[in-house]
Design brief:
The protein is an alpha/beta fold. The protein folds into two domains: 210 residues, UDP-n-acetylglucosamine1-carboxyvinyl-transferase, Chain (Alpha-beta prism); 187 residues, UDP-n-acetylglucosamine1-carboxyvinyl-transferase, Chain. The chain is built from 13 helices and 23 strands. It starts with a strand and ends with a helix. It binds shikimate-3-phosphate (S3P).
Amino acid sequence: MEIVKSGAIVGEIEVPADKSISHRAAMIASLCEEPTVIKNYLRAADCMSTLECLRKLGARIEDDGEIIRISGKLQDATGILDCGNSGTTLRLLMGLVAGQGLRATFTGDDSLKRRPLDRVINPLRSMGAIIEGDRLPVTIHHSHLKSITYYLPLPSAQIKSAILFPALSIGSKIVELIRSRDHSERMLKVFGASIRREGTEIIVKPSKLSTPGEIEIPGDISSAAYWIVLATIVRGSRLLIRNVGINPTRTGLIEVMEKMGARIRIVNDRLKCGEPVADMEVESADLRGIEIGGEQIPRLIDEIPILSVAAAYADGETIIRDAGELRVKESNRLTAIMELNKLRRGACEADGDTLRIRGGTAVTYGSCKTYGDHRIAMTLAIAGAAGLGVEIDDSDCVNISYPDFFKSLRGKR
Ligand code: S3P
């Protein structure tokens, strides 16, 4: 697909529903016998994989094309649970299946098969889960779990959530030194679970869940990120992005962009189903390079590729440290980001876990590889739209999180 140079981005846009929150809403609703109506569920491949897996686990799911209604009395899986490309589907459902004492075999696509699973298998085994296999396909057998205190070895909401699900039946304590996204904790509380945070500890008591009846999913800040960056770097832009989740465990990109000089105004903030939501006004601005790392990273982990585009348009150098987790996402994103060098000559360099991006290098047209990774495809498209255009080898991969991305990009130029 070819993406051409964009003019100023002016007007309004809504972004698709939050992927992380959609997965959690469906999974948690399936733990309740009474139905939950989910409004604005993300109809993209990853979240559809979650629905398919839940159906095979016996959840009742009705989808009228508008709302989704879910209720559950889960049982052993009928057929293999294919998680597709979705690490969140796989890792969270492993915790859910083990926690419910059920049996299921999990698989996924080639990318998912390459991604580390020991990070979830180890804590679940230490709770007593019987898991056959260390890489996909893996089978979880009927198990009786015991509560644990688990020190998260890395700040990962997927690991944390995989332990939270069994903890709902048996209680447990999770120690999280660096905070990761807390959508599971928030959603579980909306469903009446007993979860509290004391400093770095998350304490879960055995809980009986009950549905709030209706859940509405806010827009995804990770999808908004592409427009925030495009509107910032294309001169003369002024964009209103409506209904975006602004959970503080996810807003790292906004804070970093503001420190770089971006003009982003958060307006109309409100709370929806336990999650803070707002509209964002973005105006073009001159950016300067920045150094980030440490506990900032989990709060913008999925936005590092698109932040690299902003950095390439900034004055000076940007250094992103502690970015090693990017190697085990849907693609090796530290390698994939180097494709930007085909559009901004010599801008990016990866050295161990550190990414360096020089601003102001020569802008060129290029043909780039997406590595079949939705976030890399959208990142390259934005880099091309802000520069002299780009050709990407795979546009379908955006279906994972943002099926209408290219339609919106065409509409905004
Ligand atoms: C996610 C957590 C993050 C993120 C992923 C979605 C989630 O992964 O990168 O896209 O929904 O819990 P890790 O928890 O592995 O860092």
